[in-house]
Structure formats: C-alpha cells, structure tokens
C-alpha cells in the first residue's frame, strides 16, 4: 500500500481522469491488470481472478497461450512484415487456409474472404455494404435483441433502443423482427410455439405487399444473441430463416463474431442447425486475441470493384499469425467438444443454483456461451408467469462474484443476465469453482437485500 491507496486505486483514478466517460468495464470491474495466463488474471495488487469474460469471448485459448505467443514471436524473430495492407504474405495465405479449413465444407467451397478494418463492427459494416451492392436494395432485416457493434450501420441494426436514442442519422430502413427469445417470447408464448410463431410472422411479413418493407438487401442474425443475454436461436427457427431468405433471394448474413470458432460447442453456431449462410462475419477468436476481422461470403456476391472496400489495418500480420495458431489449436484439440462438455458442466451448476434461489429466472445458452437471467420474484409476473428482469440484482451479483475472485459480464434485458464466456481451454475444476462462486454470490446478495428490507427505518 502507498499513501495514495492501492496501486489499483491509483491507476483506476488516473484512468477516470484521463479517459472518456464512455469507458464501461472499469465501472463494474474495478481492476488494474498486472499479468494474465490461461483463465487467470492477476491484478497489480496481487489478487487473482478467474476470467469469465475473456475479452468478450475474444480469447478462445485464454491469456498468453504458448501456441499463440510462439507464433507471434516467430514472426518477429524472422523479421517478417507486420503491416501489409492487402498485399499477401505466406502468413496471410496460411491464415486463409486454416480459416477455410475450419468452416463447414459446403460454405467454404464457394467462399470469398474480405479482410476489413480490425473490429467486429467493421466486418458488419462491410457485410451490409456488400449485400446492398450485390442486390441493389437498401432495406435490412434485423432482430429484436440483436447486437452487431457500435458503428453507424451496425448500431442501426441493434435491438437495444437505449444505445440508439441519443444518436441521430442512424442507417434508415432497418426492420426489427421478433427473435425467438423463449423465456420472454415476444408473442407471450412458450417453448416451441414461440419459434414457430416467430418464423410464421417473418414469412407473412415478407409476403405481405403492404408490410411497408421494400425488397431487402439482406437479413442479419446471431445464432446465439450475445449482448442480448445469451439467447440461443432454436435450430428449427434458423433453418426456417434460411428457407425463407433463400426462397426470396435475400442474402442471409450470420454474425458469428462472438459464436465463431468453438464457442457454442460447434466450430460455428450455424452448425447446430446445419445451415449454409450467404455471408458470415467473423472477428474476436479468429485473431487469437489481436485485432482482426473478416467477411466470408458466397462468391456469387463478389460484385465489388477493386478498392470498393478497404481498411488500413486489414493487413495485421501479427493478428493473422495469432489467429492461425488459435484456429490450428482449436482444430487439433477438438476444443469445440471440450467447450460443449464444460458448458454442460457449468450449466448443471447454474441449474442447481436456479433450483435453490427463486431470483434465477432462466439458465440458457450453448457451449461456453451461457447466461443466467435474474428476476424480481416480489413483483408481478407476466402472462407466462415470468417475473420482471432485475438488472440491479445482476449488478450486485457481478460485484459479489468479483469480490470472490470471478470476473463475469452482465447483459440482456435491463442488464439482468449474468454472462459466462470463459476460455475454451478452461478446466473442469475451474468450472466447478465458477459454479461455487456464483452460488455463493447470489446467496450473499439475496441475504444482503433481505437484511436491508428488514432493517428498521
């Protein structure tokens, strides 16, 4: 300790003075990081945390995985170029080889790869531009609860109205359709009836000449809504969206930025439904922890002229080296299977917690992309018997978990979903510890709330 408090306190105070008010994570996770390895982060004060955020799902192999570090060191030791715009290199060609190898064969065999600026939202912007150029149409179909990034076009696709309200001039002609969020079905229906009704609604809307929707340039969806609260789309619904869009010659854009490369228990989220999209956006895990994004799409859509879409940092060779190492490791070690097994293990822990505390409304997700939705059982339920979302409780649980050495994120409706995105390499013993900490954190938070309610005025 120093006169100014702990090192973390001083660094966080300095950050608050100098960084934009838009900063987010330090507000709920007051952490200054010293080092990290695998699923463990160590603070500057020597405290250790299990990282269930993992760069919002970016770190598929965890922090500083030897395979990734070695590949980057090799690139630098050999004096290879680090930045190449879109000029090719052996490093780049190897990355493309491995990327295509990881994709479903039916998609990869006719695929074209577009390198973008380095963030996932840049891939979404490129996909929108591609679809509009290829079709000559301007309107886009998106889904309630969706999240595709924070740039103008991507923000226009977002379902969260709070993030869009301060912004003027968002991309026009975006139509938000009902997503099959079964716990809070937009039609007030449960289970299978929800996705069936959603699919029927979409089809009827697109078949209705008075729907107000001009011919769409594309439909974009997430196989599992991430920021929307770890909401998986039923495989049957995904297959219906593919059928509906194919019959109407509407390009289907699948946002695999968070789900891609093993996160959901398959290499790609579309594989749960065995569908082939027209366009796929990828970032996060494919860069091995470094900034990298691509759009992969059917070659029939490749109508761009040279230079029609560019980006200065589309030639990030370190990102391609790290991404190649990550893809190879995932493929060689069948990490999608490990993610499925560890996801089932964590889900079992969360279900035990749900059975113990009535503040847990739902446990859901796929693989190691899980969410636990917290509710207020003292409030009035809706027609399905679902209690209102409780974002304050979720924040309190996040804080209690942090105090016990676990980093989790919140998201979903009203921020009420505690989200889990650990590295795909995480061990069973760490999964068990995560489950224990979540249980303890909810118990402590509920007890604190009860004590406050019972305290004399």
Automatic annotation (TrEMBL):
Q: Which domain of life is it from?
A: Archaea
Which PANTHER family would you find in this protein's record? DIAMINOBUTYRATE--2-OXOGLUTARATE AMINOTRANSFERASE
* Keyword annotations from UniProtKB, A to Z: Aminotransferase, Pyridoxal phosphate, Transferase
Q: Which family does it belong to?
A: Belongs to the class-III pyridoxal-phosphate-dependent aminotransferase family.
Cofactor(s) annotated in UniProt: pyridoxal 5'-phosphate
InterPro entries linked: Aminotrans_3, Aminotrans_3_PPA_site, Dat, PyrdxlP-dep_Trfase, PyrdxlP-dep_Trfase_major, PyrdxlP-dep_Trfase_small
Q: Pfam families annotated for this entry?
A: Aminotran_3 (PF00202)
Which organism is this entry from? Natrinema altunense (strain JCM 12890 / CGMCC 1.3731 / AJ2)
Segments for region (Disordered) = 1-23
| Single GO term (MF) | transaminase activity
Q: Does the keyword Transferase apply?
A: yes
Taxonomy, top ranks, is: Archaea, Methanobacteriati, Methanobacteriota, Stenosarchaea group, Halobacteria
Q: Which CDD domains match?
A: OAT_like
Would the keyword Ribonucleoprotein be found if you checked this record's keyword annotation? Answer: no
Q: What name has this protein been given in UniProt? A: 2,4-diaminobutyrate 4-transaminase
